[in-house]
Amino acid sequence: MNQSVFRSIVLTFAIAFSSHAIGQAQETSAQASLSVQGRATVYPNVVALRGKCFNESRIIVIATEKPLTAKQFEQVVKANAEETQTLEGYVSYIKASFKEDGKLRYLVGDGGGAVFSKKNEDSQTILHGKATVTGDRVSGEVTLNEPGEYSKVSKMVFDLPILTEAPAAK
Predict the structure, then answer these.
(1) Which of 1, 61, 137, 157 is the most exposed place for a label (fewest CB within 10 A)?
(2) pLDDT(69) > 80
(3) Strand ranges, E, within 89-149
(4) pLDDT exceeds 50 at position 36
C-alpha cells in the first residue's frame, strides 16, 4: 500500500515538473549555426527585437556566441535592420530581418571568416525563411545553403518573445 501511494506521489511530481519544464521550453527556444567552408560555429544566444529599415518596422532575430550587452543591443536597435554591422567588441553574429507579416527580407552575418548579406528574393534558391509574429512573440526558421568556393550553410530555428530592452546579464 505504501509503495502504491509513493508511486502516485512520484508520478504526480513527475507530471507537474515535466509540464512546468515544457511550459518554460515553449517560453523561449532557439538554435542557430553557421558553417563557412565546413567550419561550424554554434550561436547559443538568440534574441528577437524590433528595429527599422527606412522607417518601416522590422522584426530582427539575432544570434551571437555570447549574450548581447546593453550597448550591443542598442546598436542593433538603432542600425538599419537589414545591413551588416560591426558590434562593439567585434561579436560574431547572424541576423535575420523580417517584415511584420513574417516575410523574410535579409540574412546578414559576420562569422567564420565571412561577412555576408543575402536578400530574400523570389529568383534566388539559397535562402529560405518565414516567421510568425503574434503580438510580442516571433517563431520561425531561416536556412541559407550557399554552395561554392566560400560556401555558407546557416540555420536558425526560434520561438522567442520580442524584447524591448536588453536582457539582464547572467
Answers:
(1) 1
(2) yes
(3) 93-98, 104-111, 114-119, 127-134, 137-146
(4) yes
